[in-house]
Predict the structure.
Amino acid sequence: MKLRYVDIQGFMSMDNIPGKPHRLPLGDVTVLLGANGSGKSNMLLFFRMLSSLSEGKLQDFVARYGTDCLLYYGPKHTEFFRFSLALKTASDVRYETILQTTANRDLFFAEESIRPHFFSQKGKESALLLLSQEYMQTCTPPIPDVLSFLRGVRAYQFHDTSMFSNIRNKAYVDDAQQLKSDGGNLAAFLKMLHKHTDWNRYYKRIVRHIRSVMPQFGDFDLTPLPSSPDNVRLNWRDNSGNDYLFAPYQLSDGSLRFMALTTLLLQPPQLLPSLILLDEPELGLHPDAICELAGMIRMASQHSQVLLATQSTRLVDEFDAGDIVIVERDKSRKSTVLRQLDSDSLRDWLSDYSLSQLWEKNVLGGQP
């Protein structure tokens, strides 16, 4: 199951004009390109909200960010926001929801449906949580498992590589079911892949790709710590043949982020999330590593959808025009607007210029 597009109204920087939703088309890879403050991060936050919704934690999400922030110009201006997810299934399925504010500035489900199948009662958490697999299968036609798809929407940001970050410190060896959003269990996850009979080849592929960007890298040493046998750290050795053991503190920020991105994107296909969210994944990477990153994103997109936001001209040039969605602030509407690039209309331009050059020349839009 994959997403074809998302329609949003009234969420954060997106206005709520009747009949004029903000549509984000989604392919295997979708690249959000725009200036600071245009709304790229708001789009990613919307998908993080979907993940919270699927876990029955919408109210926790609302409490964290505040209703004033989530509604377009706040609840005095916008009383509700709505969204619709169009899913690639055998039949045309849309998951539609209206979230409305209360006098206490909470948000609740005023409407919720999986068209043409299911309509919910009002509540603070999604009625999807109440649907059993047996019930969905006995309906005619069967109700698609939208909830499982939404639970596979995961955001990753490996920006915190400070000395005391989770990724540089020890991790519980059994905490390896899935890679955490901050890479805090990277060592435990890699150890699990290394020891797993069927997944060891993916571990070896991860190591090969790390070596392509960090030639001195030999391999990880994921032996549990003698003083703490239930924990493991991201120790490693170089390819000199010396038995010196390097600590995770002896990795540069860019190298550590690349290791986490490589592990995320090259993990076994059956472990990949349904939708991977990445916010400026190129941060701190060498241009050659950015090229490698783009290739890994395309590999992961064969089994999962990838949505990323960037301002990197180097990364933009690694994708096709049809993968790019321009995000910009419409001054007259005082709202974020989304526009997918059309390869055919840019064909003459692209014969002489790269996508990044056209963006810098403001041919594509998405500039301040």
Notes: The first strand starts at residue 2 and ends at 9. The radius of gyration is 22 Å.
